[in-house]
Amino acid sequence: MAAPGLDGCSWFAALSLGVSLLKCLFMDAYHSTDFEVHRNWLAVTHSLPVSRWYHENTSEWTLDYPPLFAWFEFGLSHVAQHFDRNMLVVENLNYASPATVLFQRLSVVFTDLVFIFAVRECCRCVQEQKGPRDVLSRPSFVLAVLLLWNFGLLIVDHIHFQYNGFLFGFLLLSVAKHLQSRHLQGALLFAILLNLKHIYLYVAPAYGIYLLRSYCFTQDHKDGSVNWRSFSPLRLLALGAIVVSVCALSFGPFIAMGQLPQVLSRLFPFKRGLCHAYWAPNIWALYNMLDKVLAVLGVRLKLLEEAELPRASMTGGLVQEFQHSVLPSVSPSVTLVCTLLSILPAVASIWRRPRGARGFLRCLLLCALASFMFGWHVHEKAVLIAILPLSILAVESREDAGIFLVLTTTGHYSLFPLIFTPAELPIKVVLMLLFVIFSFAALRKLGQGSLLRPLESVYLAGLVAVAIACEIVFPLSPWQQRLPFLPLLATSVYCSVGVSYSFLRLYASLLRQDEKKSH
Amino acid sequence: MQTWSLVSICVLLGVVVRWGVSLNSYSGAGKPPMFGDYEAQRHWQEVTYNLPVQEWYFNTTENDLNYWGLDYPPLTAYHSLICAYVAKMINPEWVELHRSRGYESPAHKLFMRATVLVADLLIYIPAVVLYCLYLTDGSSKKKVSTLFCFLLYPGLILIDYGHFQYNGVSLGFALWGVLALGLGWDALGSMAFCLALNYKQMELYHALPFFCYLLGKCIKLGPMGRGFFLLVRIASTVLVTFALCWLPFLSDPSEALQVVRRIFPVARGLFEDKVANTWCSLNILIKIRSILSSDSQIYLSTACTLLAVLPSSVKLLTKPTFWQFKLALANSALAFFLFSYQVHEKSILLAALPVCLLLNDLPLVAIWFLLTSTFSMLPLLLKDGLLVPYVVTSLAFLFFSLYLLSALEHCSEEELRLGAYHKMLFFLPKLDLACITRWKFYIGVAAMAGLSAVSVALVPPPHLPDLFPVLVSTTAFLQFLGTFLYFNIVQFSGPPSRKTQKKNN
Predict the structure, then answer these.
(1) B74 — pLDDT class (breaks 50, 70, 90)
(2) What is A183-249 written as a DSSP string?
(3) Is pLDDT above 70 for B377?
(4) What single DSSP character describes residue B497?
(5) What pLDDT, in 10s, does the model give residues B28-66?
(6) Which residues of A are less than 8 Å from B106 in CB distance?
(7) SS3 call for B343
(8) What is the structure's pLDDT at A476?
(9) Do B16 and A430 touch (CB under 8 A)?
(10) φ, ψ of residue A231 in degrees (nearest 5)
């Protein structure tokens, strides 16, 4: 019997409204320095002329997003002046009146409408199975919940404070357009996204190769290889025109003023360290851990002199360049080379055997995850770029659902140290539990049976132990004073294992599909 | 999805909404010298921890009863004592005698909010879950929807987690009582209700239905024989529970009397502040407080209350079924709220709990009443700085309860049990009562939304400073009166027919 009221498309509106109302409840919660960052950008774009935007440095939080985002903040500032004019004064550093908080929080909730729209488009692209099904077990419903109620987005956007929902809206909308074979629209949206936040450059290779291979070459040979003669210069021109015009709109004024080098220097600051103050759970976390272990072992086994080792401060929370003790040091160019090498097989795979839009999605996912794994100064929030697109694949395939559960649980747990205040602890624990229970129960129902291998289940259960140790046991133990960064280290290293494992499994699934087609 | 995962999701959502509300301000925050209910609870922890039991309710040099003296029965005092022990372990400054007056800090606020959540998780929420799963009918999806709406009721969340009180404990115990009676465990049910009564004396609003239901059941079982044994069992349970709760005070009768004097202060007036009951609303037209003497005010309100509660109680006595019991609870609580002496606006929660029990059976009217009850507390919530949680939780409750319980679809005349109205209003032309009811609902919600917006946005004219609270309480009063009449009529109509029940599934 159909559940009362859960027919038609009304469930989507219900989910969207519910999550938006929940977001409004977190207005008074802790917010990070990102709140001041965005307030400063509102002030800078509102009070200063365009020529000063990228030169202004009264506040330490200088404008380091591309110009289109600056225009977005400029637009927001016109609404902000009706809430509290004082927040738009550049000199009012750390200004956080109740009206300011209300405006900023509401702006995130409203711009999330882009995300909600994108999720609706993605839900339309999901392949449904035939026959009447209870709404709660439909793939589109599960996808909507996994995306709209994503724990990472709720925590990062509505407590920590950022505009990721807005940006991910563009990414997911672009993906949805590609899934619907509207490639030009997808390209346009991605170009806009790149000009809003340049971190998405990491997934640009996937777009580039996919569009070149599947859109510019209009036909393939029967065996799937490239038909060089079907190349359409018109399509390539159209794509180029879109990208160039968007970039021109965004960077144009600054190129005209000759400020391009200044803007680029703000966008790509490489003076920061290999790892963030808290290590993102990627390869370098494991690398650092190995380095430390070897150093300690070396000292114990008298192979190294303790005096020769550089002072340990990678865990000291300072964002500086740092030398490793035993293993060779890593520089930005090394990470770039590693990242490029790691995405090469994926990109080559969709060149050789394009599998349509879903192959592109898988490649995008791998580019995002590879850049997370090997990138320079990666923030743990970047794991969301991999988790959100993976949700689309997870509701359609059993194997992807299993990988999704591992990646999501570890990736979301690695976000825990972002919200460290005691008042918000129940919120993050309860939201995490909510998401875990739903994702496990819903995906299991979709996939008909257990999705995790025994070892994976053990690993995820271990996460609970790590959580209890870090959140409850450690603060009450005597090591709190001497080794205050131990829980961060433990979280980061434990999660790196999970994330790396998911990365390898995703790669394996891509290459296995490649092999299957070629037989 | 399996029921257990849906139930845990509902409970977790209920918890996160509660904690989200608790991030906001509390009553009396930063307002010396008296502060508010939050400081009262902290003060009781201080008093119960540092002073011997005999001095808790007495005015001594150590215990100034004018500064938030204990005026709830002993169970509240024991609860405060337990919290005080925990507080002492974390930070002794929080409960230091005299010196901790007016103590406010983020850590302390976190502790106090946590005590409310723990009490809820232990008492109120399990009762709600068990009630919805075992004592409501319908498919499992419907039960989960009812559970979600029940947990989302804004009034209790805003008062317990915003203003700061422990209503979840007393209402939770009362709900355990209802649950036990519904499952046929009468002795346990009476014990649970006694615990509720010994936690907050306001639970007396529910006492008559419990009494009439159990007495009626005993009579039905046969006054000689099983009925008599049941009566004895229940009576002895009640006496033992009371004795255990009051044990420290029974050694000296004057002590017990002092406790009674503290929990039933009759020196105050007919009403205080603006509350949505008859006397306050009547006071706008006729100044009763000045016309009648204090004694006649007491007599008048007692008489009216008894008169209002009599029909429902008698009906329950003659026909002790669970359905009648639920309706009688709602009617009794509403009767007391509307006509009783010294009613506070928070007492509407005592009527809201029985109406939550009726969410499954009469969704539209229940949702309407629950929204009105939250709205009636708007002036209090605005004073505490809880505007945003009020708006968010009310909108969420309105939308989700209408959506999940399909309240607007399931409102034919039969489902709303409006048949009796036809019989009463036989002289009027044949009206589509269901349509009228729906329109009354829309207008009521619009009026509440409008008044809420106006109370926040506009400044009242200087010669009518209390304009908005008065408008709020009068609007709420009219809707409460209508609901009271409706529930009485429904209680006197026939029981829900099997046909309508099947349709609701």
Answers:
(1) very high
(2) HHHHHHHHHHHHHH-GGGGGGHHHHHHHIIIIIIB--B-TTS-B-GGGB-HHHHHHHHHHHHHHHHH
(3) yes
(4) P
(5) 888 888 888 999 999 999 999 999 988 888 888 888 888
(6) 423
(7) strand
(8) 78
(9) yes
(10) -65, 135
Do A1 and B505 make contact, defined as CB atoms within 8 angstroms? yes
Contact A426 B15 (CB under 8 A): yes
A87 with A103: CB under 8 angstroms? yes
Is some CB atom of chain B closer than 8 A to the CB atom of A433?
Answer: yes
Q: What is the ipTM of this complex?
A: 0.91
Strand, coil or helix: A275 = strand
Higher pLDDT, B82 or A477: B82
Least confident of A185-189, A507-511, B352-356: A507-511
> In which element (H, E) is residue B101 found?
none
CA nearest B21 in A: which residue? A25
**Å from B432 to nearest chain A CA?**
24
Contacts of B17 in chain A (CB under 8 A): 22, 25
From A262, A260, A218, select the one nearest A236 (Cα to Cα): A218
The mean per-residue pLDDT over the stretch B197-226 comes to 91
A377's enclosing H/E stretch is none
Nearest to A4 among B8, B142, B395 (CB): B142
The helix, strand and coil proportions of chain B, stated in percent and rounded to the nearest 5, come to 70, 0, 25
Q: Which of A45-54, A60-69, B145-154 has the highest mean pLDDT?
A: B145-154
Burial (0-12, 13-18, 19+ Cβ within 10 Å), B438: middle
Taking the Cβ of residue A28 and every Cβ of chain B, the question of whether any pair is shorter than 8 Å is answered with yes
Mark yes or no for CB contact B405/A137 under 8 Å: no
Mutation for A interface: B19, B140, B143, most A CBs within 10 A: B19
Contact between residue B294 and residue B486 where contact means Cβ atoms under 8 Å apart: no
Residues A201-239 as b/e (b if ≥16 CB within 10 A, e otherwise) read ebbbbbbebbbebbbbbeeeeeeeeeeeeeeeeebeebb
Task: Name the nearest CA neighbour of A66 among A219, A260, A208, A226.
Answer: A260
Direct distance between the N- and C-terminal alpha carbons of chain B, in angstroms, rounded to an integer? 18
Closest-CA residue of chain B to A445: B1
Asked if B359 and B149 touch (Cβ cutoff 8 Å), the reply is yes
Question: A283-300 and A486-518 are packed helices; what angle lies between their axes, rounded to 10 degrees?
Answer: 130
Burial of A301 (0-12, 13-18, 19+ CB in 10 A): exposed
Please judge whether A4 and B396 are an interchain contact, meaning their C-beta atoms are less than 8 angstroms apart: no
Phi, psi (deg, nearest 5) at residue A29:
-75, 175
Cis geometry, peptide bond prior to residue B33 (ω within 30 degrees of 0): yes
Interface touch A14/B399, C-beta < 8 Å: yes
A28–B23: do the CB atoms touch at under 8 Å?
A: yes
Helices (H), B184-225: 186-199, 207-220
Q: Among candidates A121, A141, A157, A140, which has minimal Cα distance to A20?
A: A157
Query: Is A15 in the B-facing interface, judged by CB distances under 8 Å?
Result: no
pLDDT in tens, B309-326: 999 999 999 999 999 999
A-B interface: how many C-beta pairs under 8 angstroms?
A: 91
